Sequence to fold (215 residues):
Amino acid sequence: MKVAVIGTGNVAQALINGLISEGYDVKVGSRNSGKDSENITKLKEAHSNVSITSYVKAVEFGDIVVLPIPGASLVDVIQEIGVQKFEGKILWDITNAFSADAPANGVIKLITTPDESLAEKVQKLLPSTHVVKAMNTVGAHLMYKPVFGENGTIFLAGNDGYAKERISEIAKKFGWESYDAGKIESSRALEYMGQLYVAQGILYNGWSSTFKYVK
Ligand SMILES: NC(=O)c1ccc[n+]([C@@H]2O[C@H](COP(=O)([O-])OP(=O)(O)OC[C@H]3O[C@@H](n4cnc5c(N)ncnc54)[C@H](OP(=O)(O)O)[C@@H]3O)[C@@H](O)[C@H]2O)c1
Fold:
């Protein structure tokens, strides 16, 4: 499948590495596509043939579009690209809805309310797009082939079963178990799990830990 990765930061680099290593056809979108920014130089060092273009062209290319960009910019960036460009596609939402305020005892404030997650906001903005929230609950350095005593769980939330299966496939290829946590409303809980993951990192240096769903 063709995957567009929008942005070139920490999460983007991890995803691009994993997706290319697993044989996905990847196009990267960057605001700096014409320049050699630090991130682009790093990317080219790791994958010399990586295809880097504008946000719009990358979105046009992808069957799956993942936007590892600041959560606070997500809606604006989608609107700048153009909502119609996302029609019929799978939007893999990996963002966290963190505010820029200082954390309180490790807990970062969210820019959302308990009754509407960022993923729900995006789904409302893009009714003809299949939004799947997934992998916002793990650190970038853990995303591809993490080494744990046992497999951790990637939780998925979204309204479309086919779309969730495609992201679940990626999660499994990346070395994770996956768990279908429900429709898009379940992304509310996943965004709080992202907050909890970071709090464990700040409080206990638990950056290399993860969540596992057991039955
Ligand atoms: N870091 C983690 O461990 C982790 C884990 C799970 C989820 N997340 C979430 O994943 C998203 C990306 O995190 P990250 O750590 O990869 O961030 P990052 O290193 O700061 O990279 C963000 C990228 O987003 C693009 N971008 C677009 N609009 C931007 C803006 N207004 N300001 C800054 N960058 C902008 C930039 O790419 P171009 O300049 O190339 O366009 C930039 O490199 C966030 O929502 C974060 O909460 C992060």
Summary: Strands lie at 2-6, 25-29, 51-53, 64-66, 90-93, 130-134, 153-158, 177-182. Residues 7-12, 30-32, 39, 68-71, 73, 77, 94-96, 98, 136, 139-140 surround NAP (CB under 6 Å). The chain has a mean pLDDT of 97. The CA atoms of residues 8 and 39 lie 6 Å apart.
